[in-house]
Specification:
The structure is a single chain. With about 375 residues, the protein is of the alpha/beta class. The protein has three domains: about 140 residues, Rossmann fold, CATH 3.40.50; about 50 residues, SH3 type barrels; about 80 residues, Elongation Factor Tu (Ef-tu), domain 3, CATH 2.40.30. The chain has a six-stranded antiparallel beta barrel with strand order 12-15-14-13-16-17. It has a five-stranded parallel β-sheet with strand order 3-2-1-4-7, with helices on both faces. The protein has a four-stranded mixed β-sheet with strand order 9-8-11-10, with no helix packed on it. A hairpin with a 2-residue loop joins β14 and β15. α1 packs across α6.
Length: about 375
């Protein structure tokens, strides 16, 4: 990431660019900032060209024509400008291609963290600064605490069920100083109530749950885009004995039990991938437990000392006590208790209480 422009002292009102999706969260964030006296500019990113055909099952729900119209109606109601910016090339390179390449290598990527890292909080943040904005705001459920020494802490949201701090582990101080998360202290129910109070046209719009560019089944997306990487191969047990066949490495994930079609006395799970031999290793549930993981591409928002931290190995997973040890450009993580189904390519995030210390990608 290239250095951002220097923070400078500005006179009121402060300008803030709000990343808008056409949904209730970003709409409430924008409207609240208008009420608070900010000079608001709404921006939506056009991310995935193939999704502009509304009838397509894998249509792009995050920037569809309806979503653009919903965001523009909010902007008109609260009298701030709204722009649509084309980010298709960057999104394809940093998110979609990354997603496909990782699956082709037998890993399980997290496209939302890649999008936050490269698109929302790099591509869009730079354009916000070019628009003379002082801040970029989003509808993420996370909190920021600005300390007297100038440090900004990223903290978990007040609503633990909606907390998105896991997806923001990579931001770092330079970007955190430029961000506002208006919804961090609110529950989802309170956000809905605010949307009704504010008279927003999207107050009752349902939330989007799936990966925006994939559709209902990510396997179908993989079959359409990397068919050359989806080759049938052998299922082997931990001793290397062939026990069955698989339909292609990218169609399986660590911990998967369904779809193996094995007649074995014990339940079998996917334990690992051998990309060189196009094999999947299967075994009993005990084989899914790990006490140590190696982490690549670590990033930190705060200093990580030698003391114990807690970690999540999936966005809605439980916190687990652990210790970190640096190993060159990587980290070694030792858990106090074994963790189940740790998946290479997924994100691990470290917490000190409510503070997001940092994270990285499981190797």
């Amino acid at each position: 990431m290239r250095p951002l422009a220097r923070i400078h002292v500005v006179t009121e009102p402060r300008r803030v660019v709000v990343a808008m999706s056409g949904g209730v969260d970003s709409s409430v964030a924008a409207a609240l900032l208008v009420e608070q006296g900010y000079d608001v500019v709404g921006v939506m990113l056009r991310l995935w060209a193939s999704g502009w055909r509304e009838e397509t099952p894998a249509g792009n729900r995050c920037c569809s024509l309806d979503a653009v119209d919903d965001a523009r109606r909010v902007a008109d109601a609260f009298h701030f400008p709204f722009y649509l910016i084309n980010a298709e090339d960057d999104f394809k390179h940093y998110v979609v291609d990354y997603f496909l390449q990782e699956y082709a290598q037998g890993r399980t990527p997290n496209p939302c963290t890649a999008c936050n890292h490269h698109i929302k909080f790099d591509f869009l943040l730079r354009r916000a600064l070019a628009m003379n904005a002082d801040y970029l705001a989003t509808g993420h459920y996370a909190r920021l605490a600005r300390l007297p020494d100038g440090t900004v802490e990223l903290r978990r949201a007040a609503d633990s069920a909606k907390d998105q701090s896991y997806m923001l582990y990579m931001l770092g101080q330079e970007r955190l100083r430029r961000l506002i998360f208006p919804l961090g202290d609110m529950t989802k129910e309170q956000v809905r109530e605010e949307a009704v109070r504010l008279g927003l046209p999207v107050a009752h719009k349902p939330d989007s749950q799936d990966i925006c560019f994939v559709g209902r089944d990510y396997r179908e997306f993989l079959l359409q885009n990397i068919p050359e990487a989806i080759l049938p191969g052998e299922l082997v047990d931990t001793a290397g004995r062939v026990v069955g066949r698989h339909a292609g490495l990218p169609l399986y994930t660590i911990g998967q039990r369904q779809g193996l079609n094995l007649a074995r006395p014990e339940r079998s799970y996917v334990l690992g991938m051998d990309t060189d031999l196009n094999r999947i290793v299967v075994g009993g549930e005990s084989g899914l437990l790990r006490t140590h993981v190696r982490v690549r591409q670590p990033a930190f928002n705060a200093l990580a000392g030698d003391g114990a931290l807690e970690a999540k190995i999936r966005s809605h997973g439980q916190l687990a006590s652990c210790r970190l040890q640096r190993d060159g450009d990587c980290l070694n993580v030792q858990f106090d208790e074994p963790q189940r189904a740790v998946s290479p390519g997924q994100v691990i995030v470290f917490y000190d209480g409510d503070v997001v210390v940092g994270g990285g990608i499981i190797d």
